[in-house]
């Protein structure tokens, strides 16, 4: 896969990277526009004589969770009109446009979020900070939220998505995920890198343009810490301190077989045994790796195919009364192992959790008292019913030709 990466800076000093898969750019015959003509001040210029302060995070003394507090995000862009798309390419001939992409076209672009939840400042860059007491109370701890948030634009067209873009573009997106995972993992204070996509207004998406995000955290998230606890419990039970939780669970699902939807030579797709959401799939490599950067060429090629098939199945899961298929809202969450070995890197690995809030046509799964107040989940269906419907949807997709253009051999269950 030939992808050319070109780095530049936006007007306010943020990083931007073009990932090109088309000519004449992939060969280097031409280069995307690198200057940003917007009259934006440097984001770290003093304001009213005071240095810019980044977001902070405080530790919940009841749970130990770190909570970033990014008041700057209150003013972020929210559902702009179609003619003011900040993630689209610049309009040809326009003198000025408050969009993030300098060129009038692109393949895939990654740039630092203008309204980040986590951000390094010149004072915190590369620093591993020690928590400080809040209000003079040693129980209340605070430190800079000096991570990094990036946006990944999958393509220039507002009215498209990864499925319609096809496997070549999906493959380029995977290259971007891999490149940024490797680079962000090199930042000294970063504990883990999280790649994800929110899709649909019901999820809370404020920009309709096809895009995802990458968060690099200066702490281990609650979900990762919970998985590490399970991994260490498994190690104690088996007497194997190096046993990998993700690999062990994957192998158990394959042996059970009842919830497996599809397998390729490199990947397996199934509904997890304790699925929370009305639609929930897990996608894992058969040769487990810690993160995107560790995927080999065959794994990347296979992922570009089966990942799109997974989304196509989800979009054929529900049908309206007239028989029309209903495209679903979803979150696609890519878990990667912690950056450092001492944080449990060898115990976890790369896997995708794909889920939708849509439990039936026109009906959403809301997180009410038990889920939101106690983190005690209650499912409205069973994993076996989800898997059965997913297999039915896969067969319907084959009959409809919805998988046309996807050529990696798949074994449907």
TrEMBL record:
Residues 27-61 are annotated as: Disordered. One of its GO terms (molecular function) is UDP-glucose:hexose-1-phosphate uridylyltransferase activity. Its cofactor is Zn(2+). Residues 29-38 have a biased composition (Basic and acidic residues). Residues 251-353 form the Galactose-1-phosphate uridyl transferase C-terminal domain. Keywords: Carbohydrate metabolism, Galactose metabolism, Metal-binding, Nucleotidyltransferase, Transferase, Zinc. InterPro entries: GalP_UDPtransf1, GalP_Utransf_C, GalP_Utransf_N, HIT-like_sf. Gene3D superfamilies: HIT-like. Its EC number is 2.7.7.12. The active site is at 211 (tele-ump-histidine intermediate). GO terms for biological process: galactose catabolic process via UDP-galactose, Leloir pathway. It comes from the Bacteria. Belongs to the galactose-1-phosphate uridylyltransferase type 1 family. This is Galactose-1-phosphate uridylyltransferase. It comes from Mobiluncus porci. The lineage of its organism: Bacteria, Bacillati, Actinomycetota, Actinomycetes, Actinomycetales.
């Amino acid at each position: 896969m030939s992808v050319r990466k070109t780095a530049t800076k936006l007007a306010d000093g943020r990083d931007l990277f073009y990932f090109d898969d088309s000519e004449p750019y992939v060969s280097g015959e031409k280069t995307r526009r690198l200057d940003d003509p917007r009259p934006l001040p440097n984001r770290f210029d003093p304001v009213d004589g005071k240095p810019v302060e980044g977001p902070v995070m405080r530790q919940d003394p009841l749970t130990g969770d770190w909570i970033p507090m990014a008041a700057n995000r209150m003013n972020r862009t929210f559902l702009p009109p179609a003619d003011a798309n900040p993630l689209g390419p610049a309009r040809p001939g326009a003198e000025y446009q408050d969009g993030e992409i300098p060129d009038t076209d692109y393949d895939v672009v990654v740039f630092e979020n203008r309204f980040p939840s986590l951000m390094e400042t010149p004072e915190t860059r590369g620093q591993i900070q020690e928590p400080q007491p809040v209000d003079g109370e040693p129980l209340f701890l605070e430190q800079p939220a000096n991570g990094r948030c990036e946006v990944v634009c999958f393509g220039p067209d507002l009215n498209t998505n990864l499925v319609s873009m096809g496997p070549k573009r999906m493959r380029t997106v995977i290259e971007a995920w891999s490149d940024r995972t490797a680079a962000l993992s090199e930042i000294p204070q970063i504990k883990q890198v999280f790649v994800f996509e929110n899709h649909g207004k019901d999820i809370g998406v404020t920009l309709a343009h096809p895009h995802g995000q990458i968060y690099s955290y200066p702490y281990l998230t609650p979900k990762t810490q919970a998985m590490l606890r399970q991994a260490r419990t498994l190690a104690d039970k088996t007497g194997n301190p190096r046993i990998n939780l993700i690999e062990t669970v994957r192998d158990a699902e394959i042996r059970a077989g009842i919830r497996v939807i599809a397998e390729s030579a490199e990947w397996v797709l199934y509904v997890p045994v304790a699925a929370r959401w009305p639609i929930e799939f897990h996608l894992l490599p058969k040769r487990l790796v810690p993160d995107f950067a560790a995927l080999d060429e065959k794994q990347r090629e296979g992922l570009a195919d089966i990942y799109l098939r997974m989304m196509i199945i989800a979009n054929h899961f529900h049908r309206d009364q007239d028989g029309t298929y209903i495209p679903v809202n979803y979150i696609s969450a890519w878990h990667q192992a912690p950056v450092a070995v001492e944080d449990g890197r060898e115990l976890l690995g790369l896997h995708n959790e794909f889920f939708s809030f849509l439990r039936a046509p026109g009906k959403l799964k809301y997180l009410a008292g038990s889920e939101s107040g106690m983190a005690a989940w209650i499912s409205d269906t069973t994993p076996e019913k989800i898997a059965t419907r997913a297999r039915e949807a896969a067969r319907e997709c084959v009959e409809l030709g919805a998988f046309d253009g996807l050529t990696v051999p798949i074994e449907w269950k």
